[in-house]
Specification:
Blueprint: H1 4-8, E1 27-34, H2 38-49, E2 54-57, E3 71-73, H3 74-83, H4 86-92, E4 94-96, E5 98-103, E6 106-112, E7 124-126, H5 129-145, E8 150-153, E9 157-163, E10 168-174, E11 177-188, H6 195-199, E12 204-208, E13 213-220, E14 230-234, E15 243-249, E16 253-259, H7 266-269, H8 272-283, E17 289-297, E18 300-304, E19 308-309, E20 312-314, E21 320-321, H9 329-348, H10 356-382, H11 387-400, E22 448-449, E23 452-453, H12 454-458, E24 463-467, E25 474-477, E26 480-487, H13 496-501, E27 508-512, E28 518-522, H14 527-537
Parallel strand pairs: 1-2, 1-11, 2-8, 5-14, 11-20, 24-26
Antiparallel strand pairs: 3-7, 4-7, 5-6, 9-10, 10-11, 12-18, 13-16, 13-17, 14-15, 15-16, 18-21, 19-20, 22-23, 24-27, 25-26, 27-28
Helix pairs in contact: 2-5, 2-9, 3-4, 9-10
């Protein structure tokens, strides 16, 4: 399934004895991250690039087998691009923007997730999660080789923790026995079953959906039936399940999801002959394929009550879970890392108060609730639990074939979009009559400019974006350096910049956070208002 380089990557960080294991007194680290999955490595990259030492402890020695997450959204690619590994992901991934929805044997409509031009990255790429992880691990290794403060330790399992007022004590088990270390901050990126969450006696609240789904990743030879699109069937004619989803991945691998019901014998369903029976009914007996991975899962839409508990923070699946339809798991986890990294960096460097981290909890709980709401709606539509709900769903599908008004009601897994933090305490009240998509709290949309693309110019520090407005090149406020990016809409490559950032206005000034979310915007430059907004965005003022 993977080339030799990535087969070797399954032991990307084999166990090595560390100097910490030979100390009589536990070594104190600024940040320890539990979990070497995509969100743990992303968080380490974010911190390490700021010069903050980040220690990743993982009970394995590299990326896991199996595709698992495969759909990576534009926003995740933009974040990865700032970390320095977006291009290889784009090169490897299967690009797609079009999805088609079928009811029984009829196509009822299709959609384009990125109908507008002027973005560096597509709406989605499909790529097996091990590739996504490995590209980030390679980037971390590159930084480490250049003196970057990232340390990834395999076969280092955290067995116990003790939370103090200002740090955490960890007991770590290795193949050579246990050792103890301390950390100012501990970040749990240790997955849905999170041992850290269990050690702290914390739990999820939410809902488990009573249905089962069978995943099969298959390698097809000479496929000519299916294009590079997302295809979803309700009540498919091949009768392999109540619904079926098909995606293409790299290496001629295709992901198939079958909805198989709640009261199933999982052991029986996982037998190869039974998986093949479903696949043969769907693909036809003449199609040659190899099963490279399979699994059964159920939907869960849950989250922790809070993502911060003193010096301990949670991110990714450790903090929240949603159904895989909609690709919100890994993508929302990347937004967690993106949100947390700059805030923790400012706190550690003494440039922001510790209370800034409370906004991580507020903003990402808000994002998790948005994802859970959309995921729950998708699941209720895909798996109706009453006769009336089933009749309503089928009526909507029938209408959508010929009537555009019904199509927005069809929900085959509304796909991941970045969260706009409308209620964030870091936002300054909107002072510009500009486009709604770039209001305070929103992620900055990309746009082509003379030197490439806007997001690449914004970077990952606080930025003052000025469009046809004079302003100082830099501004310093209480240790924060605000850098200006000046653009003229008249000289932009296309009208996309003006459409996305000005609307009917003739000029604009945007205060952009390090995670490229808008903190404030105005029609013109006013130093006092900019300073006030910058203090608010760093948790220093209201």
């Amino acid at each position: 399934m993977f080339d030799d380089r990535y087969t070797l990557a399954f032991k990307a960080y084999p166990y090595e004895r560390s100097a910490d294991q030979d100390q009589d007194v536990p070594v104190r680290h600024p940040v320890v991250i539990m979990g070497g999955g995509p969100i743990g490595i992303a968080t380490a990259l974010d911190l390490g690039r700021q010069g903050i030492p980040a220690l990743v402890l993982d009970d394995h020695e590299g990326v896991g087998m199996g595709s698992r997450a495969i759909c990576f959204a534009k926003r995740s690619l933009e974040i990865a691009d700032r970390y320095g590994c977006g291009d290889p992901m784009l090169d490897k991934g299967v690009v797609w923007n079009v999805g088609k929805v079928f009811h029984q044997d009829r196509q009822v409509f299709e959609f384009n997730l990125l109908p507008e031009e002027g973005h560096k990255f597509p709406a989605f790429i499909n790529m097996q999660q091990p590739y996504f992880e490995q590209f980030m691990i390679e980037r971390a290794r590159d930084l480490q080789a250049k003196g970057g403060p990232i340390d990834i330790r395999g076969k280092n399992r955290v067995d116990a923790i003790e939370v103090k007022d200002d740090h955490v004590v960890l007991t770590v088990m290795t193949p050579e026995g246990p050792y103890t270390l301390e950390s100012d901050w501990l970040i749990g990126c240790d997955g849905a079953s999170s041992p850290l969450r269990r050690m702290m006696g914390l739990d999820f609240t939410g809902r488990v959906f009573q249905d089962s789904f069978l995943i099969a990743d298959i390698k097809m030879k000479g496929n000519t039936k299916f294009p590079t699109e997302r295809w979803f069937w309700f009540d498919p004619p091949f009768k392999s399940g109540a619904s079926t989803l098909l995606h293409k991945q790299p290496d001629d691998v295709w992901r198939v999801d079958f909805q198989i019901g709640w009261d199933v014998d999982r052991a029986e369903e996982m037998k190869e002959e039974n998986i093949r029976a479903r696949l043969d009914a769907m693909l036809g007996a003449d199609v040659e394929y190899e099963i490279v991975w399979s699994s059964i899962y159920t939907f869960q839409c849950k989250r922790m009550a809070q993502f911060r508990s003193g010096p301990v923070l949670f991110a990714g699946d450790a903090a929240h879970q949603v159904s895989p339809f909609g690709a919100r798991g890994a993508n929302s986890g990347m937004q967690d890392a993106d949100n947390l990294g700059w805030k923790l960096g400012l706190v550690i460097n003494g440039k922001a108060p510790e209370t800034l981290l409370d906004s991580y909890d507020l903003e990402r709980v808000y994002g998790a609730d948005e994802n859970i709401m959309n995921s729950t709606r998708s699941t209720d539509f895909i798996t109706p639990k009453s006769e009336i709900s089933h009749i309503f769903r089928d009526a909507v599908l029938d209408l959508s074939e010929h009537h555009a008004f019904a199509r927005p009601l069809v929900n085959s897994g509304r796909l991941s979009v970045p969260c706009t933090y409308d209620t964030s305490p870091l936002n300054t009240d909107d002072a510009m009559d500009g486009p709604a998509r770039t209001r305070p709290g929103s992620p900055c949309p990309d746009a082509p400019i003379a030197d490439g693309f806007l997001l690449s110019q914004l970077g990952d520090d606080f930025t003052l974006l000025t469009i046809d407005v004079d302003a100082p090149e830099t501004l310093e406020d209480d240790g924060i350096i605000l850098r200006r990016v000046a653009i003229s809409a008249a000289n932009a490559e296309t009208d996309h910049l003006a459409e996305r950032y000005l609307g009917e206005a003739t000029s604009g000034v945007y205060l952009i956070r390090p995670d490229q979310h808008v903190a404030a915007r105005w029609a013109g430059y006013d130093e006092k208002r900019v300073r006030q907004a910058l203090r608010r965005a760093t948790g220093k003022g209201s």
